[in-house]
Amino acid sequence: LARRLEPLTGNDRAFRHSARELLAMAAWRNGNASATRRWVDMIMTDAQTPAATRARVEVLTALSPAVGRG
């Protein structure tokens, strides 16, 4: 999954928000806190991230306290 989605996460890519969200969810599901944090940080620092995506990522962060710690 990561191999296919990572090329879509660049700042100039149209589907970057969806790709980043899917990668964050996949990392969270696999218990990889550092990868989850990486994708969450990328999502939250992108000023163009849609509000709905931000809201879902905030829920993910709340569900996984290890992700919220930096």
Uncertain regions: pLDDT < 50 for 5+ in a row?
none
**Biggest sheet descriptor:** none
Distance between the amino and carboxyl termini: 25 Å
Q: How many E strands? A: 0
How many helices does DSSP assign? 5
Write a short abstract of this structure:
The protein is mostly helical and 70 residues long. 69% of the residues lie in helices and 0% in strands.
Task: Show the helix and strand layout.
Elements: H1 2-5, H2 16-29, H3 33-45, H4 51-63, H5 65-68
Helix pairs in contact: 2-3
Index terms:
70 residues; mainly alpha; 69% helix; 0% strand
Task: Write structural notes for this entry.
With 70 residues, the protein is an all-alpha fold. 69% of the residues lie in helices and 0% in strands. Helix 2 (16-29) packs antiparallel against helix 3 (33-45). The radius of gyration is 11 Å and the shape is globular. The model has no long low-confidence stretch (mean pLDDT 92).
